[in-house]
């Protein structure tokens, strides 16, 4: 196998599903290969290897690689035995992440013909607390360094790999018990789902829903609910399976509850044990209509903080009680779920902080505009007029009044511009096309050449109804923020704006020739955050493409919702337009 292209690489979850599909021939070798494939996919590494230690656990007995082709393998010669940095993990089985493997004091160097490798991530694989081997990952795609997130994900993978390898060794020797092995692969599948959520999804409700569904399937529970701590109270935040209607969103009494007890001792509780059943019926889900003969209450704990509990009730197969193996699998799953939940809570808190800071920033901006310009000018006008109260010359009074009228006209224009920035009347009265055209014209007065293409169904007479106000506002605000960023921060000279509507979607594109920015490092300001939140509220997508010196492109797409009959305006669509409106640069 040579270089892999990240865009064409198979999804990490596909590798896990493939493992489930070949259970009939699953053995240790299949499991080891699946572990390597998943590790490389999840970390973005170019090369992956699994070193298996011998009985003495002093050196490597086997060394399985992925990413090195046969030609390179022949040039390298003998496979590593566990010296240098590889041996460091054998001697000290803890995760090791390096920016430059060659700079490590124990680096043993590479043999002739070995591909160049710099970035490194090593994680031990333990079975029952005893080292089995180590996962070695090198050369993250794009020349980037492995992150703490990569380390957490691969550590999680290594934990479930140990479970899978242990099962494969035991059951391949017995040549039976495939159902238990299938559950192990399912556990790995469920964990990869949460790892995916950890790496990409930050919506707390979506993550909790995913955890509930995957956790229930993992232990074949009749039902599973998640009680999540919110503002000092425990709330039923998600559920899956046979549950009463309206359960999600209900608050649970924390006093002497199962959730509080499990979180207090950081241990799993079993419903079969007393006084757990009494707690369940008195203060917890029992009072909300959930019935259970047996169950597990597993705390969600990340870095010492409790985020809630998973409560699985009544095993469907061989139950209702859950086995100790079920408990162990759900506890391992809960560890990864807690990481995803904690990440989502952190992101949600940061977004809330940014929204508050942005709102204060906007208030301060408008306060400065009014105080530094309008109010001071009006105060000066008042003083000037007051001084004329004692003026006896009519011609001087007339001249002062003329100046005052001119100054008042200027202040009216300034206030009108401020009001337009806050909420343009044209958007409500004339529709988005007129408002966007006015927005482009005002951008041209600031020195930004704007090409404008608008093709909206109502304005072109293809539909009788205007869009809902949220859609019209989103069109306007996205373009407004993009053009403001282009002039204020990007020093752009030209921008191209398109607003195109098809049968079901509105697509907004703003492209400028400014100096661009690093989309990963850029966090300041409210513009991009405001765009993203508007689009997400409309169940749409937003893509920001930019790099220093290369300009910026904003692509937004969201459903083209229309107003109900009772919300229709009396405005007639423009007549006589057969083609989309196009405005070239000034």
Biggest β-sheet strands, sense, barrel: 6 strands, antiparallel
Mean model confidence by pLDDT: 75
For the CA atoms, what is the radius of gyration?
Answer: 32 Å
End-to-end Cα distance, whole Å, is 55 Å
Structural class: alpha+beta
Q: What would the principal axes of the Cα set say about the shape?
A: extended
Helix content: 40-55%
Uncertain residue segments: 1-12, 14-25, 565-579
How would you sum up this structure, described in words?
- By secondary structure, the protein is an alpha+beta fold.
- It has helices at residues 12-21, 28-43, 70-76, 84-91, 148-174, 178-199, 204-219, 258-265, 276-282, 324-387, 394-422, 425-429, 432-445, 469-488, 527-537; strands at residues 45-53, 60-66, 96-98, 120-127, 130-140, 221-230, 233-241, 251-252, 269-270, 295-302, 305-315, 449-455, 494-501, 505-512, 541-546, 552-559, 581-583.
- The strands form three sheets. Strands 8-7-6-11-10-9 form a six-stranded antiparallel β-sheet.
- It is extended, with a radius of gyration of 32 Å.
- The model is unreliable at 1-12, 14-25 and 565-579 (pLDDT under 50).
